[in-house]
Design a protein that fits this description.
By secondary structure, this protein is α/β, with parallel strands linked by helices. It has two domains: 176 residues, Rossmann fold; 71 residues, no CATH class. It contains ten helices and ten strands. The strands form two sheets. It has a six-stranded mixed beta sheet, sandwiched between helices. Helix 3 runs parallel beside helix 5 and helix 5 runs parallel beside helix 6. It starts with a strand and ends in a 5-residue tail after the last helix. The mean pLDDT is 90.
């Protein structure tokens, strides 16, 4: 589903401020995989997502999505089959519109003149979908999204994303701004939607335990490289201690990101 071949990214290339943030990275992600990605700040995680989504163009290498070369395709064309959720719950919804209007936008895959007006059948479908979130939003469909909590907005964003029919989803620390209770709700919904909709998912997190507990594959990035790739039975037996030992063997030094090491399960 995703294949990166010798991908590199250099900012300010050809100047005294040139900085390589991704270094000849190779990655294959198969259809249906749920990959968690962890690493310290500056490891290249978000840059990797920006390259996959088309927000950035690589300095070298090739990107294939679903068997097609998309290296030079702009973000809006890739958005047809890529869904992305960011850390900020405000980014995924239109605050000044109602819950049902936001869901209508997701159903139509973007802001365009409605082909069909909201009707009773659609409202019943939206209500049923919202009931599965178990947040009471089915009784607040006509309320503006600005009235919702951060956890409710992120859960709604997640639901809207899967309604739009992506093949690939990129989750960029999408629970980091939530309190532990809501973060756990959103993570459980995430795992359920990935399974039910047969999605291919990559999730960045600073929460080491979250990265270990969710998904079937874990990548650790450092210095623009993927230095650890654990999957299958090996991942199911992974612990924080084992992961730190693996990092130490690869880099010959201790992992020293306080943000990751001190994170609690969310």
């Amino acid at each position: 589903m995703i294949e990166l071949n010798q991908i590199s990214k250099i900012f300010h290339a050809g100047t005294a401020n040139a900085k390589q943030v991704i270094a000849e990275l190779n990655l294959k992600v198969h259809s249906g995989e749920f990959v968690t990605i962890i690493g310290s700040n500056g490891a290249g995680k978000t840059t990797l997502f920006n390259l996959i989504s088309g927000n950035l163009t690589p300095s070298g290498g090739m990107i294939e999505l679903d068997g097609k070369d998309v290296t030079s395709k702009p973000e809006y064309k890739r958005a047809k089959y890529i869904g992305r959720i960011f850390q900020d719950p405000l980014r995924g919804t239109a605050s000044n519109m109602s819950v049902e209007a936001n869901m209508m936008i997701a159903r139509q895959k973007g802001f365009k003149w409605p082909k069909i007006s909201l009707n009773q059948k659609m409202r019943a479908d939206f209500r049923s979908r919202l009931e599965h979130l178990e947040m009471g939003l089915q009784d607040r469909m006509k309320e503006n999204v600005s009235n919702l909590s951060g956890g409710q907005r992120q859960a709604l964003t997640l639901l809207m994303m899967v309604m739009s029919g992506p093949k690939i989803i990129l989750l960029d620390e999408h629970t980091a701004a939530l309190d532990p209770h809501n973060a756990q709700i959103v993570m459980n919904l995430t795992a359920r939607f990935i399974h039910e909709y047969h999605l291919t998912a990559l999730m960045i997190t600073h929460n080491m335990q979250q990265a270990i507990d969710f998904g079937n594959r874990l990548l650790m990035m450092d210095g623009g490289e993927i230095i650890i790739d654990v999957q299958g039975a090996e991942k199911s037996k992974l612990t924080r201690t084992k992961l730190m030992d693996m990092f130490r063997r690869v880099r010959q030094t201790d992992f020293n990101s306080d943000e990751v090491l001190l994170s609690t399960a969310q």
